[in-house]
Design goal:
The N and C termini lie far apart (about 70 Å). It contains 20 helices and eleven strands. Helix 8 packs across helix 13 and helix 9 crosses helix 13. The longest helix is centred in the middle third of the chain and has 27 residues. By secondary structure, the protein is an alpha/beta fold. Helix 5 links the parallel strand 5 and strand 6.
Length: about 475
């Protein structure tokens, strides 16, 4: 096989000088164009291939795919891919050609072409405009739907600042345009076997329950309502709370008006809004921005504190099902400063400021968003201290035991370099007559407690465990 550059006068060159992706491409195209090939199984055709060439190859595959016959080179083509370039969706029925495989222990997911939800006009419209983020979520375990690019920017920045492993947990952030899209996009991902979560502006619940109720029809929502709230129906409970909230705002707006009119939901209200909508939005967010002491001054019967408590229970129920509400309003309500009237620029500015603030401050300031991210990224954490403790105990206990038996610390430290597992590659040892100090050499491992010192009377195992602070610490302390 030889190559030549298009438009070049250079001589042909061998495959040894060409990129592996192009070599693979030649082999795939040769099989696609071969009249004698009736079926092709392609494993990750995108490997080492330029994005534009991936798009070209996808078109060639589409052109060749079909029922084999003597009049054309059509063939059955099945491919396994991790590339969104090979996921082409024009209509809902295109979704039925995709088989999603998550793990050997789970059955693959494929949508039945006769699924009624595929026939709706809204689903047709959604399929036609699926973007890169939607398709990336096909490969994720859990899509996180957020209301627009600003929310996506902040969520991405927070996951990085707080070391929340969204990608490792199989989470894909998907911005949608407008809260009206949440139920439809959620339905799409559920058809694909996904468990979507959403991060919703406060008006997504203050305006009504159509969006949030789509998360309350599950058996787990009913179980939460039964066991945690003493309610028979999650849907009925949500309606009770919302109706009580709406009625209180309508009848006693004058009590909370002085606080609610300060919220952007009120100041930014549109002339097209009815009289009640901005009141509901501003009141809802005001309740969650005010302390209970402030609310207690609004009425003698504690009505505003009580409705806040009931709304909190409803929000807890929703969060248990993956529906999180920005209780303070919109994502901008959580910014330290609004840098620009342009939302994306303001979000980018806020995101860049997170690095200069402590983790504690960021976690407290963005509490609702952090709670959402922490929940969807719930994977077993990797605690480097656990593994390091085992290594340190294996290395240090024999040395310190000999030290406690009277051997000179200087002699013990000098002999460490002769040990077969080379402990000095990870730890450094220094000694005096009555003390041995161990420090961590690695700049990669982030483990607290170093350097640590030991005397001849130290409880070696307890001191190492206490200093490093592993997950096993509590059991050691209990045994002591």
């Amino acid at each position: 096989m030889q190559f030549t550059s298009e438009g070049s006068t250079e001589a042909k060159y061998t495959s040894g000088r060409e990129a592996s992706g192009l070599i693979h491409l030649v082999g795939i195209l040769a099989a696609i164009y071969d009249d004698d090939v009736g079926a092709l199984l392609l494993d990750e055709p995108e490997v080492s291939l330029h994005p534009q060439l991936q798009s070209f190859l996808r078109r060639e595959i589409e052109e060749a795919s079909g029922a084999p016959d003597d009049a054309s080179y059509k063939k059955i083509i099945v491919l396994c891919t991790h590339s969104t370039e090979f996921v082409k969706i024009n209509t809902p029925l295109d979704l039925t050609t995709i088989v999603l495989c998550q793990a050997l222990s789970k059955q693959p997911i494929q949508i039945n072409p006769e699924t009624p939800e595929l026939l709706s006009k809204k689903m047709y419209g959604l399929a036609a405009r699926l973007g890169h983020e939607h398709k990336s979520a096909f490969f994720a375990n859990r899509p996180l739907l957020v209301e627009g690019p600003s929310d996506a920017i902040i969520c991405g920045a927070l996951s990085g600042r707080l070391d929340l492993p969204l990608e490792a947990a199989g989470v894909q952030i998907v911005p949608v345009i407008g809260k009206g899209e949440f139920p439809l996009v959620s339905k799409l991902f559920r058809l694909l076997g996904k468990n979507p979560a959403i991060l919703l502006d406060a008006d997504g619940i203050a305006d009504g329950l159509s969006t949030v109720n789509s998360f309350l029809h599950t058996p787990s929502a009913v179980e939460f309502a039964n066991s945690k709230l003493g309610q028979e129906s999650a849907i009925h409970f949500s309606k009770q709370v919302y109706d009580a909230f709406s009625k209180l705002v309508q009848n006693r707006w004058h009590e909370i008006e002085s606080l609610a009119v300060k919220h952007p939901y009120w100041s930014a209200r549109s002339s097209q809004d009815d009289d009640l909508t901005p009141k509901l939005r501003a009141t809802f967010s005001t309740l969650f921005q005010c302390q209970n002491d402030s609310l207690s001054c609004l009425s003698s019967d504690g009505a505003w504190q009580k409705i806040k408590a009931r709304l909190t229970l409803l929000l807890d129920l929703l969060e248990s099902q993956g529906c999180f509400v920005l209780r303070k309003g919109t994502i901008e309500s959580y910014y330290a400063n609004i840098a620009s009237s342009e939302k994306v620029l303001s979000a980018a500015t806020e995101a860049s400021s997170l690095g200069g603030r402590s983790v504690e401050e960021v976690s407290a300031h963005f509490d609702d968003i952090v709670r959402c991210l922490t929940t969807v990224a719930a994977v077993p954490s990797i605690v480097e201290a656990d593994s390091l403790q085992d290594t340190l105990l294996r290395v240090a206990v024999p040395i310190l035991a000999r030290f406690q038996n009277g051997e000179r610390g200087e002699d013990l430290v000098a002999s460490i370099g002769n040990a077969p597992d080379r402990p000095e590659a990870i730890f450094s040892f220094t000694a005096s007559n009555d003390k041995i100090e161990i420090d961590l050499n690695s700049k990669v491992l982030k483990v607290p407690g170093f350097p640590m010192s030991f005397t001849r009377k130290s409880n070696i195992v307890a001191e190492i465990t206490r200093s490093i602070g592993t997950r096993r610490k509590s059991s050691v302390d209990a045994n002591e």
